Amino acid sequence: MFVPDDKLASMIFEYCRWRLSLDPVDLDLPGQKAVLEEALVGLIGSKPRDPEDVFRVFTDVLAPAVISCDSPRFLAFIPAAPTKASLLFDMVVSCSALQGTSWLEAAGAIAAENQALRVLADAAGMPQSAGGCFVSGGSAANLSALVVAREVGRRRAGGRGGRDGGGSGGPALRVAVGDQAHSSVAKALMVTGMEPFLVPTEDYRLTGSALEKALSRDPEPESVVAVAATAGTTNAGIIDDLESVGRVANERGLWFHVDAAYGGAALFAPSARHRFAGIERVDSVVIDPHKWLFAPFDCGALIYRHPELARAVFTQDASYLDVIHTGAPDQWNPSDYAYHLTRRARGLALWFSLAVYGIDAYSDAIESSLRIARESAALIETKQYLQLVRNPELSVVLYRRKGWSPEDYDRWSDILVAEQIGFVTPTKWEGETVARLAFLHPHTTIAIVEEILETME
């Protein structure tokens, strides 16, 4: 039915070789809906199409309408810059149809993934007993971790389930958060039926003193079962005071979760490691290798201090699954540590790349992003028409163009990408529209930054 085609394979491999050879990668342009729709009209039908014709639609129309996040000129949102080794091995994972659901089916893949997870857990100072799995990204990881936090907190509260229908009533369970927590944390609380316990921040940073004060003043502090701190906010790269927050969480018996999806990679940078003091106290932590650890999408690492707590929550009970749970105790099923069941072996590309290049190369690459952020901040301060909003803690730089309106920023952003100078989108800071540069690509240069800044004069 689906007959192998050597011509099709050659065509795909030739394109992959070409794409991998690009240095630097072209930025490309946003797509136009009418053009894309016209190219796709009638492409899928009941009869086969010539693969060359279909692939030509992709190469000529679809691919150029995807802005390349692995371009050194992609400085918006949170970019990505997968290593060549990781991209190539991701092809191996795909063409081998590798999955990583259970030890019974995929022991080889899972053993390698767990080795990569151990590297991350060691960087965070977590005990040898820590473990978890790779999920699609920070949103899935935050949701899974907070589900475990809810169930642990519910048991500590004597089975009270709050308003989500899973317990014996009473106040809704709550999770302490700062005002800079990622939007996925708020979504996770909505899904789990918990509510945010908003703690005032100090210079946009959640602190233990503020957490303790808020809990002491609250009439129902026992309903707060967890605290979700952030190690590298996506908007400004701010790291909460993990040491003091973790200490209060530990003293009060709260689940201590840290969303380090973006910033966690800086654990490997000697110049920034001190900023993460206290992360070793976590009950769960999220680090996204597809962000600043140079892995392909979609690769998010979720690690628990006590993985058996997650296993008690997520192990799926079904007759046809009994066989995967009857092996030796040391058999590791990633399906037991998040809300997923079937999953691709998404951590293998990271594992291969770490082994090929070594951790020191990763440290050097991350340090280069931190350095370019500091150099860019210093450069901005030399421009009379610009103003630095705050000194970067990690690799995000916020600054303003004096006298500009939101519309000016939008027009400037459109011109930048149209002329292939860069992809930079504005953000909001304290209600004001400002410019934002996010550095993750190790080949972004200060010359590129200078070129971008000159367009604002």
Task: Sum up the structure in keywords.
single chain, 457 residues, 4-stranded antiparallel beta sheet, 11 strands
Structural notes for this entry:
By secondary structure, the protein is α/β, with parallel strands linked by helices. It has 15 helices and eleven strands. A seven-stranded mixed β-sheet has the order 1-7-6-5-4-2-3, sandwiched between helices. Helix 7 links the parallel strand 2 and strand 3. Helix 6 crosses helix 7, helix 6 packs across helix 11 and helix 13 (359-380) runs parallel beside helix 15 (446-454). The radius of gyration is 23 Å and the shape is globular.
Strand order of the largest sheet: 1-7-6-5-4-2-3
Discrete helix count: 15
Radius of gyration: 23 Å
DSSP E strands, number: 11
How much β-strand is present in the residues?
5-15%
User: What profile does the largest beta sheet have?
Assistant: 7 strands, mixed
Class based on secondary structure composition and strand pairing: alpha/beta
- Low-pLDDT stretches are none
Shape: globular
N/C terminus separation: 61 Å
Helix share of residues? 40-55%
The overall pLDDT average reads: 95
Sequence of secondary-structure elements:
HHHHHEHEHEHEHEEHEHHHEEHEEH
Quick structural summary:
The chain has 457 residues and is α/β, with parallel strands linked by helices.
